Amino acid sequence: MSADADSYEWPAFHEASHCCLAEYFSQETKEAWIARREGQHIPAEWRAPSNVADKQRRLNEIIVLMAGRAGVDRLSGRKLEYPDWHESDDYTLALRRAMWLSGDDEQAADLLLQWGARRAELLVERLWHEIHAVAYGLLEHERLTGSHVREIIKQSNNGKVAA
């Protein structure tokens, strides 16, 4: 499969990675889009369950935010260069969570981001079949509701919820 950055394939795998890892952490996906608005792809939305402690929720969110990049890297078969990564919404939101967790210690926040990126890589590899299924759902429909994302994940696991 060739992945073309200008097509919808990369955004589909990027957003599918966010969705599948959010679902892995029981963060309910609201909806996912790969349609363009003002030249930008509209991101997936998810929310954490209210019963998860703040620290754990923020750690999980860092991983989910790093998942899009890990998913595109997995699709391309190599680590890609992202010149605008530090200006992206994913990075900015992950950094905000890391700074909160580290008590505004920049070095500790950077280590948390590295940890989150590595965890995202490992989980993207582990959940690749689910990510693949959700990405192709996005390519087919351009927009998926959270219940549709969960159904695709369930079907990709032959009716079993992934552990």
Q: Care to describe what's here?
A:
It is a single chain. By secondary structure, the protein is mostly helical. The protein has one domain: Peptidase M41 (Methane Monooxygenase Hydroxylase, Chain G, domain 1), CATH 1.20.58.760. The chain has helices spanning 9-24, 54-76, 89-101, 106-126, 128-141, 146-156; strands spanning 28-33, 36-37, 40-41, 45-47, 143-145. Strands 4-1-5 form a 3-stranded antiparallel sheet. Strands 2-3 form a two-stranded antiparallel ribbon. A hairpin with a 2-residue loop joins β2 (36-37) and β3 (40-41). The longest helix is centred in the middle third of the chain and has 23 residues, at 54-76. The radius of gyration is 15 Å and the shape is globular. The chain starts with 8 loop residues before the first helix and ends in a 7-residue tail after the last helix.
Distance between the termini: 28 Å
> Which term fits the overall shape?
globular
What's the helix count?
Answer: 6
Question: In angstroms, what is the radius of gyration?
Answer: 15 Å
**For this structure, what is the CATH class?**
Mainly Alpha
Q: Count of DSSP E strands?
A: 5
What class, by secondary structure content? mainly alpha
The CATH architecture assignment turns out to be Up-down Bundle
Largest sheet: 3 strands, antiparallel
Low-confidence stretches: 1-5
Total discrete domains:
1
The third-level CATH topology is Methane Monooxygenase Hydroxylase, Chain G, domain 1
